[in-house]
Amino acid sequence: MPKDPSRAVRLPHDHVPVKAGRIGVLVVNLGTPDGTTYWPMRRYLKEFLSDRRVIETPRWLWWPILNLIILTKRPGPKGRDYASIWNDERDEGPLKTITRAQTEKLAARLADLGDDVVFDWAMRYGNPSIASRIDALHAQGCERLLVVPMYPQYAAATTATVCDKVFDKLKSMRWQPILRVAPPWHDDPVYIHAVKGGIEEHLATLDWTPDVILSSFHGVPKSYLLKGDPYHCHCAKTWRLLREAMGMDDKQLRLGFQSRFGTEEWLRPYTDETVKDLARSGVKNLAVVTPGFTSDCLETIEEIGVENAEYFHENGGVNFTAIPCLNDTDRGMDVLETVTRRELMGWV
Ligand SMILES: C=CC1=C(C)c2cc3[nH]c(cc4nc(cc5[nH]c(cc1n2)c(C)c5CCC(=O)O)C(CCC(=O)O)=C4C)c(C)c3C=C
Ligand SMILES: [Fe+2]
Ligand SMILES: [Fe+2]
């Protein structure tokens, strides 16, 4: 039987055109501003920081802080940070460039599944929006939709908010695709093996050896953990499995949480404080790996590669390296291919 029933069924001559029977795979990453100047930065930060999954502070308290303080002060300096890592050729942030490349390579790797599996990508905040890409997949006849949130560790602030946005879109559709969402892969052996391989490959390019490797994950407020978010446990498990795979103890491969925002306590240990403490305690050679980020972005290239490198050098450290994310490398693609093939089982 052909996979696309519209090719098999003869429709009445006055019937609306029907395309059907296909499967859409939608890769979704966090987001990035449309530009680095004040207004695109402000729009992006407003969308991001108005998300109740990201900021759980009560609305009445958060509204004035966001609109009167953050959205006036933050777009300028953060826009300059984005400008320092911007992909000028495509006029976009690296997260977008890399997510596109990952999706294109994923489509190539899964080409054996045939033309009825269609691949696309979207950003949770900014563009291309999730709704617009679901529309595009629907228009191509996708009756089934696999969403792949690009987060190895689950957090309400990341994975769940992607689902919220997908559900919002489906709610508005008469003919909804049937939905699957890829689960997090924080403890998948393919992922752990890929991160280990990425570390080893990068370290082999250096003419020095790190005394310590710091495994840094994006932080969230500590209160999210206390309310039951599994994110901390997923990060801790990734870190433990990576230590076991690399034969390192918790001093050789350290844990840190980065990108603190606001005044609340966040998950500890803090990456920036750890980097400073390590340098002050005599560590001269430090490598930082960021396994929670599937694609390099502001938080890895600028925050780790520039800001934390400065902290290390200012406090007595000598050699510092930021290990690139898996991105669209063969290892990175092994992980995405494994996850996607597994979740398509029974559909293809
Ligand atoms: C309270 C605020 C934030 C929470 C909670 C949070 C969680 C979280 N974020 C990521 C991944 C990324 N965040 C990125 C940028 C970024 N994050 C926040 C705030 C919170 N994130 C802000 C305001 C920004 C924008 C930059 C800035 O103003 O500081 C990025 C980079 C995007 C890019 O285009 O480069 C990523 C990726 C995770 C995984 C996470 C929780 C688990
Ligand atoms: Fe973030
Ligand atoms: Fe935990």
TrEMBL record:
Binding-site residues for Fe(2+), renumbered to this chain: 218, 299
Top-rank taxon, per record: Bacteria
Q: Which coarse location class applies to the principal site listed for this UniProt protein?
A: cytoplasm
- Among its keywords, does the record have Nucleotide-binding? no
Reaction catalysed by this chain?
Answer: Fe-coproporphyrin III + 2 H(+) = coproporphyrin III + Fe(2+); heme b + 2 H(+) = protoporphyrin IX + Fe(2+)
Q: Known EC number(s)? A: 4.98.1.1
Q: Which HAMAP family match?
A: Ferrochelatase
Entry protein name: Ferrochelatase
Q: What is the lineage of its organism?
A: Bacteria, Pseudomonadati, Pseudomonadota, Alphaproteobacteria, Hyphomicrobiales
